[in-house]
Amino acid sequence: MRETSRPLTMLSIFPSFEVGGAQVRFTTLANFFGARIRHKICAINGNYSCTSLLHPGLAIETLKLPIRKADLWATRRQFREVLRDKDPDVMLTHNWGSMDWVAANFPAIVPHVHIEDGFGVTEAKRQLLRRVVARNVLLRNSTVVVPSRTLEHIAKKIWLLPTHRVAYIPNGVDIEKYSIRRRSKLDDVPAIGTVAVLRPEKNLPRLLQAFRLVRSQRPCRLIIAGSGPEREKLEVLAREAGIAESVEFTGYRTDTENIYASLDVFVLSSDTEQMPTSILEAMAAGLPIVATDVGDVRTLVSAENNPFIVNQDAGDIARGVISLLDSPEMRDSVGKANSGVARKQYSQGNMFRAYASLLQLD
């Protein structure tokens, strides 16, 4: 049993520690808890770019291990040796990409918390049987944290994990940071946009198709904030569609609050999500949202915004955007309702308290 007077030593495993939703949430929690946690971080692919978001002075050790993927038993032995050598109070793993570490800790060497944020393209439409079985076996004695009710249902009813092992902790955002006053756009071309890692599951080609349809009927511009492997492909698609001059790719931005402040409508075009942080940030910013009906999105937004949660179809997205662009009064009322829901239900304070309790840092 750890003495509560000393810092918690936590070994955190990520498939990648590049900037993304899970990584940003981790850095937000780490910065908040400060000296109460000593961190050892392993990025399986060797990408540690998100460490730039951690406050200087935190106790951080990054592990760079030569992973021998072809030899599973050697890799398992290697991971178990690391667990014994580092002797953390808890191991924190993230998503399917870290399951080799979960397997290495089975049977348990250290207490384990697994955070499941959702699925990539492989499991966007259905659960894979071999992964279901693996999760059922390997996570039965772990604490499994999920940020969405959809994932909570999957963990309990499909993976058949014990109910008491599954903890629902919604993501939280800095409400005050994002609720800055938006500038007047009376003389401006309206802007729609998104904030996302440019990966296939975000289906940003669908957003470009929807924007082309909107722009054919209304003057507007599109802002896509984020970096990722799909950027070059998306730029080519924008040129081929004849809309490149009206599309701005900002790249990765640390000041996303200014991106939201420049928008009239926020759009999410994903094939798969659970509880996207960008939706919560857009709500905190007082924006109306047009989004595909994935994960918990429909239940996250205000009742007033619900009519703009649509099928995974560019035409449906375009029609939702046009309706909001045509009615400033509706945009304002939906945005205000979203802001109220975000402030009440999805503050960082709620998230901090839940993780403090989970990690026994109260």
Summarize the structure.
The chain is of the alpha/beta class.
Describe this structure in words.
The structure is a single chain. This protein is α/β, with parallel strands linked by helices and 362 residues long. The chain folds into 2 domains: 8-172 and 347-358, Glycogen Phosphorylase B (Rossmann fold, 3-Layer(aba) Sandwich); 175-345, Rossmann fold. The chain has helices spanning 21-33, 72-86, 99-104, 129-138, 149-158, 175-178, 204-215, 231-240, 256-261, 277-284, 297-300, 314-325, 328-345, 348-358; strands at 8-14, 37-43, 60-63, 90-94, 112-115, 143-146, 166-168, 191-195, 221-225, 247-251, 265-268, 289-292, 309-310. The strands form 2 sheets. It has a 7-stranded parallel β-sheet with strand order 3-2-1-4-5-6-7, sandwiched between helices. The longest helix is centred in the C-terminal third of the chain and has 18 residues, at 328-345.
